[in-house]
Amino acid sequence: MKPDNEQNNKQQTFSKHQHTNQLNAVNESMKIIIYYVLISLLWIFGSDRILEIIVDDQARILQFQTIKGIFFVIFSGGIFYLILFNKLKLYVSSIMDLTYAYDRLDKLHSSSLELERKLYQLAYYDELTGLPNKTLLEEKVNEFITNNPNKLMALVYMDIDEFKNVNEVKGHQVGDGLIKSVANIMKENLDESDMLCHTGGDEFVVAFYDIKDLSEFLVEIDTFFKSIKRTHILDKDEYYITFSGGVALAPDHGDDYITLLRHADSALSMAKNKGKDQLVIFDDEMVMMITQQTEMLNQLRNAIPNHEFSLHYQPILDLNTFEITGAEALIRWNHKLKGYIPPLEFISLSEKNGFIKEITEWVFYQAAKDLKKWPIKDDSFKISINLSAVMLIHDSFLKYLNQWIEQYQIDCKRITLEITETAVISDINRSVHVLLQLRKLGFTIALDDFGTGYSSLTYLQKLPIDIIKIDRDFTNHIQADTKEFHVLKYMIDLAHHLHMEVVAEGIEIVEQQDLVKSYKGNFAQGYYYAKPMPIDQLLSFMKAYKK
After folding, report:
1. How far apart are CA 506 and CA 314, in angstroms?
2. Per-residue DSSP letters for 67-124?
3. What pairing do the DSSP bridges indicate for beta strands 339-341 and 309-318?
4. What phi and psi, each to the nearest 5 degrees, are found at residue 384?
5. Are the beta carbons of 134 and 257 closer than 8 angstroms?
6. Which pLDDT tens digit goes with each residue over 353-384?
7. pLDDT tens digit string along 317-345?
């Protein structure tokens, strides 16, 4: 009813305006006619009276009457011209003003429509790729689920593996170019019914609506996933780009966009943890695992304030003198409620969530504190500290370390820093730079778990390393006249040739010790000598060992 009333009101208003305009036209016309009649009457009677007074001759009066008529026609024509000219001038001016106003209104309307279009584009589409953004995606997904509560749909959350390296090496402009290229490739490999969105950074979300058969969809998504992996030329260099993705299904894994995206993100995190370059479908076990990890992370952040961390030390012996020349510091977490929690369960978690810095700082602090208890005060006895790969390549690691050295009065010459091969090969150039700076500070550098990496020998000569530590998994299997035995000899000879010393880890029986010693291995550690122990027990052990 409301639109009809508005229409009637508009028609009534238009009729009133039209009637008013007609009245104005009649009034103006009547004014002109009245003016003309009055002037004419005044002229006729007035001029005749004047002629009668001035001229006596009737013949001459007739002549003047003709002249008077001609003059009246000319005069009245002039008067009419002036009246009509002014009226028409006003009319034309009004028409021109109306035309100008209409043009302005038309331009303003066009500008308003263009602004509205741009605002809509900014609100619902990504500026870099032109793809729908997460706002539009959320609206469409929720709309589909509301209208089709029993139909199957999927949300696939994907990102580019190692995209950070592209940005860091090639710059953000090249990174943006890669994002646009990937977006185009994805669009080419999707149906029109699918919705591809760029949600920011290197992250994309694909919504697959109205899935008829789950098994067919899984084949379809796997084909799509494989088709978008390819080599890209970035600033004249080739990069093979892969993706990790998480899949969440509605209604099984959620009945709204927020829940689906959260579960797809959890599956994506699982894909990353499994080694990247793969798709993972969400399941309920992930929720439990993520909940446990979140709980552990919260507990981890309270471990230092609650004094739940401690350092245990495993002695390192000189195989020539059999004297204890050092000890490896190993972190232990004794939770107040859960008891002992192995490092394997919390170190990787702390690396992923940024807490590794606080743990590393605590280890340096505690090791420096324990060193002051040692009866040996020179650098002939060293404590070995394991350095996380994340910390080694952290941009601010050297700045942090210098602060700790000053704050905790760390004697760098009495500390050996152990790094793993995986830590250095992830960014070999930066690793070499950092290791050189560490050596300048006085630290000894040891390459841990040597013999397990496929590229150890390739990088060994490039790295500023003082010691290699042969991995326990290798020494556990060495026996006379075996492949491991001959490889061990080669590894020790190679290290000595490169002016490095050798520590054999995992020595558990005397035969292993003797084999390492026979090929001039420098140091050994393992359960054959002692298990890791707290500082006070180690000091007692060292006193007893001397006796």
Report:
1. 11
2. HHHHHHHHHHHHHHHHHHHHHHHHHHHHHHHHHHHHHHHHHHHHHHHHHHHHHHHHHH
3. unpaired
4. -100, 130
5. no
6. 788 999 999 999 999 999 988 877 777 889 99
7. 999 999 999 999 999 999 988 899 999 88
